[in-house]
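Box 3.1. Reading complex inputs
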Amino acid sequence: MRSSTLSKATMGRLPLYLQFIRTVQTENVSSATVARALGLGEVQVRKDLASICPAGMPKIGYPTERLREDLEAVLGMKQTIPAVVVGAGKLGRALMAYDGFREYGLEIAAAFDTRVTDSSHERKPILPMEQMHGWCREHEVHIGILTVPAGAAQEAADQMVNSGITAILSFVSVPIRVPDTVTVKHENIALSLACLKIVAGMSNETTEEDSHGSEDL
Amino acid sequence: MRSSTLSKATMGRLPLYLQFIRTVQTENVSSATVARALGLGEVQVRKDLASICPAGMPKIGYPTERLREDLEAVLGMKQTIPAVVVGAGKLGRALMAYDGFREYGLEIAAAFDTRVTDSSHERKPILPMEQMHGWCREHEVHIGILTVPAGAAQEAADQMVNSGITAILSFVSVPIRVPDTVTVKHENIALSLACLKIVAGMSNETTEEDSHGSEDL
DNA sequence: TATATATCGATAACTCTTTATCGATATATC
DNA sequence: GATATATCGATAAAGAGTTATCGATATATA
């Protein structure tokens, strides 16, 4: 199992590196530069980058172009693959319109909803749920974004799984049950804000001890 | 309370517990039940809960009501505090309409944008950026959600800081620079999806050598 | 009352992640 | 060519987080 020594933690930082590397203009970039820009430890950056790009050179750093390519390769951004949105409410439609996905090799191809509202002014089709199965099979879509109301989440998820979706990004605040073969990632925005509230010390209970400014959680 | 023994990891799970506890109907709930429901380890749940609720009893479990209260207390949900949205685009307006924040003691009070579009049909005001400073000071708002285009992010963030915002939830994909006194949490949706793409094994780039299915991340 | 059982809390063992240290090397300067 | 310096990769140490184990205890049952 020595094929990918990429730990979860490292994996989570790779997109961050890519984001920054894309802004670098110089031919080479050192771990120290990256570390400073992203507020990470220099050694950590070196360790992360070494694990995916063997082109680092003493005194020089990493060749920017090569590093970017390697990052994109590992992150699977060479090709753009399609995703669907399930639940064409406000959030769902906002995500459809969001063009930031392309940078990461993803494209939202369509949305599905039980109530098909007017989608004539949208650039991408909003289709009735009944068509999801056929549509996803036909277009070989395996990634779905779930943005339905909590009450409809489980049923929608079931239909997604049934349609061949194997990876779900859920914005629903309740947990959903899926087979082991399907991966679910919850993106609880309210929860994120709540954490921020805590971190920012707006709740009487503060974790007052880490003074070295790393502000994740 | 001096219980600053709450690790980041634990902190991140507390809202998850709260979410589930709120659905529990029985008078008491055991760590095993919670663990099963959330797919966590039984011991881990016990450790987490023990750190915030001393009312666990052998053979009984935790008193549901008491546990909920303690969770809400630690998470600072006793009182609802206001937040503002900066950038009233599609995502910004979708977040304004999202009512899941209240469950976590947060409420979006208003939005600000450079171009003030028609907000007469919105329940909450969308105001011009120029008014942010005064408005936030007057209403004592210290949490902001940043949903402007990447190019406008830094300037908007500066204005937020200047308006007294000390915690920012950013949906912008570029890093923003803020003083040390301000906490920023990035919520990169595209990035989340990208990770999912990797996890779901759609980027055949991860395991080139023989792999035994090391399913990390 | 005695025994059995479910469950907690604490300690310890383990694993994962981060940080520190150090020798090696590419380039620059003398 | 010799020396200095920036930077890498590797190894080791330290720190966090997770999982396993075990004794203690509240209730149930005989």
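In summary: The CA atoms of residues 83 and 158 of chain A lie 17 Å apart.
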